[in-house]
Amino acid sequence: MARLSYRQYQQRTLVAMAAYTAFMLLVWPAVRSAPSLPLKVLLALAPLVPMFYVLALLARRIRDSDELEQRTHLIALSVATGITAALSLLGGFLCIAGVVPIDGSVLIWVFPLMMFSYGGTRWYVSRAYGGDAGCADEGGMTRAARALWLGLITAVAALYGWRQGWDSFRVGLLAGMAAAFLLGGVLAAVVRWRTRARVHG
Questions:
Q1: Cα separation of 36 and 43, whole Å?
Q2: What Cα–Cα distance (Å) separates residue 137 from each residue in 93, 143, 178?
Q3: Which helix (H) or strand (E) holds 56?
Q4: Are 69 and 119 in contact, with CB atoms under 8 Å apart?
Q5: How far apart are CA 18 and CA 198, in angstroms?
C-alpha cells in the first residue's frame, strides 16, 4: 500500500469531516422520527462511517511515520487516553453521587475530548523535540488554516441549527466551538508569522 502524503492525508480527512458534518446536519435530526427500529439504528450509526475512516487514516499515517514522529503520536495518544479516562471517572463519581445529573448523551463528547487532548499534546511534544506539528509539510495546510476551516464549518453548522430552530444549548455550543476554532486559528497564524519573522530577521 502506497504511503499517503501529508496533502493527501489532509484532503481525505477534510472530505470525511465534511461528510460527518453533513450527516449530523441532514441525517441526524431525522433519527428520533424514524418509523422503524432498523432505520433508526441505521441513521443513528451513519455518522460513524466517516469517523472510522478518519481513524483509519490516522492509524495509517502513524504506521508510515518515522520513529520520532511515531513517538510524538504515541505520547500524545497516551496523554489523551489518560485525560479522557480521568475525566470520565470524575464524571461517573459525580453522577453516582447525584451531584451532577448526566445522561447517556454525554458520551458523544468522549471522542472529541480525546482528539482535542491528542492534538494539543502532540503539538506540545513536537515543539519539545524541536519540530512543530502545526507547520505544513509536503504542501499541506498549516495548523492555523486547519483551525480556521474547522471554525468555518462549525459556524455554518451553528447557523444552520439556528435557522432550523434548534435549542439554544446546541446552537450556543456550536457557536462557542466555532469562535474558539477561529480565535485559535488567528492566534496560531500570528504565532507562526512572528516565529518566521524572528528566524528570518
A1: 11
A2: 44, 11, 26
A3: helix 48-63
A4: no
A5: 36
Q: Model's pTM, two decimal places? A: 0.68
C-alpha cell at 183: 480565535
Backbone angles phi, psi at 123, to 5 degrees: -60, -45
| C-alpha span between 127 and 142 (Å, rounded) | 15
In the 3-class helix/strand/coil scheme, how is 121-160 assigned residue by residue? HHHHHHHHCCCCCCCCCCCCCCHHHHHHHHHHHHHHHHHH
Give domain limits for the chain.
1-64, 66-135, 142-201
Tell me the three cell numbers of residue 31. 433519527
Residue 33 has pLDDT above 90, yes or no: no
Q: If you search the block for the grid coordinates 427500529, which residue do you land on?
A: 37
C-alpha 99, offset from chain centre:
29
pLDDT tens digits for range 59-115: 888 888 888 888 998 999 999 999 999 998 998 898 888 887 877 767 777 887 888
Q: How many residues does the chain have?
A: 201
